[in-house]
Amino acid sequence: MEETSRTASMDAREGAVLVAAQRPREPDWEVGDALDELAQLTESAGVAALDRRICRLRRTDPAYLIGRGQAAELAERARELGAATVIFDEDLSPAQGRNLEDLFGVRVVDRTQVILDIFARRARTSEGRLQIELAQLEYLRPRLRHRWTHFEQQKGGIGLKGPGERQLELDRRRLDLRLDRIRRELEQVRLRREELRRGRARHGWAQVALVGYTNAGKSTLLNRLSGARVYADDRLFATLDPTTRRIELPGRPPALLTDTVGFIRKLPHHLVDAFRATLEEVVESDLLVHVVDAAHPRVDAQIAAVQTVLAELGAAEKPVAHALNKTDRPEAAANARRLGETLPRAVPISAITGAGLDALCAEIADALKDRRTPMTVFLPLGEGALLAQIRREGRISDIRYAEDGVRIEARVPPALAAALAGYAIGRIPERRLDARRTED
Ligand SMILES: Nc1nc2c(ncn2[C@@H]2O[C@H](COP(=O)(O)OP(=O)(O)OP(=O)(O)O)[C@@H](O)[C@H]2O)c(=O)[nH]1
Ligand SMILES: [Mg+2]
Q1: What CATH fold (topology level) applies to the domain 373-439?
Q2: What is the pLDDT of residue 164?
Q3: Ligand nearest to the CA of 291
Q4: CA–CA distance, 143 with 137 (Å, rounded to integer)
Q5: What is the pLDDT of residue 145?
Q6: Nearest Cα to 369, choosing from 286, 283, 257?
Q7: Measured from the CB, is residue 257 less than 6 Å from ligand 1?
Q8: In the chain, which stretches have pLDDT less than 50?
Q9: Are both 2-122 and 373-439 of the same fold?
Q10: Nearest C-alpha to atom 14 of ligand 1 is from which residue?
């Protein structure tokens, strides 16, 4: 729809000036890194980075973020280079974006918009497209107002609704209707995925999710381990839609390995929210394999960023196996050695050459030994001891009392799962459960 194309706004042929703001005690290398990454993001969005600028902030100007003098210099530079866009590594408030745009006379885009733009380009499935549209519309909503400010300025006294305001109301209502519809559709997607996961869980297959910074090598690893042919490339956010494949593990049944969207520093909040349906594959898995690009100069910052996003998803407590990837590259040697000290179980690998993959599979198999199995059981009255054990050792997600017993959905450790096997039920439809109640 129209609104979407407006935020997916960067023209493939345009060039841009990149800007990072440097806070008073922020070291130079940090700003330099931020700009490097922004340049990579910009390239991934199909826009050429013509120049990079650092603006030192003494205080943040609520109207322009940067100082007026700095803004004037940037405007001059953008004009000189014929840049169609100025891209900020910061998130700009709607007012800042608008003010800077007026000042520069060229389009002003922030980091979030660049990421949204890349996601919009990459989305292939209807699930991916819905999620990115949701994120874009939510980004756009508070920015709608500005398109009508000129009308509002003409309208005069308080309480006089100008034509602009009426149009704005219409736009906003249309947008809210669309947002409602997308949210409903995504809820259906979520339920479908949940159903799929339950089906797999019933087969007893462990579910393992690859997580990691974008470009760490997750897709390459999935391909290598499963013989899949997922698109892998040296660009940010190559993967958007989750892919699940079976992998063989030593000494235990195969597991299902899911490759999904990569993480990044300052991943926009509403993007994380919008991608819930996809990211539930991570939240609901038995084990995470954190793929680390050991050859990256800022590997520690990347690991920290991944942990931040995991916490945001509510997956901070999940068991994690670490894979130190790209060890075929000489730059990785020192990092891998250092990280090996803080993460003693981390496995050095190369998804490209295949080195270390047997050790990684052994580590995954080992970590899965004490995984919890999702189960639905009906415990008759008189099995109070088992009920107490589930409460103690398991994680209960649903519990319903009937007259003759109790129905529980929980994740339980393997030994308890075995003890409960005789009481396991499939998902009993609500009606049958009610029927049982009335029969008694
Ligand atoms: N040298 C080397 N390069 C690797 C290795 N694994 C992956 N790469 C390269 O790293 C780049 C990114 O790989 P992907 O598998 O697409 O990374 P990803 O983690 O799936 O990235 P996103 O989908 O963007 O999150 C590609 O150019 C790969 O060829 C490795 O072990 N060694
Ligand atoms: Mg990928």
Answers
A1: Alpha-Beta Plaits (3.30.70)
A2: 60
A3: 1
A4: 10
A5: 63
A6: 286
A7: no
A8: 1-9, 11-12, 147-161, 427-440
A9: no
A10: 217
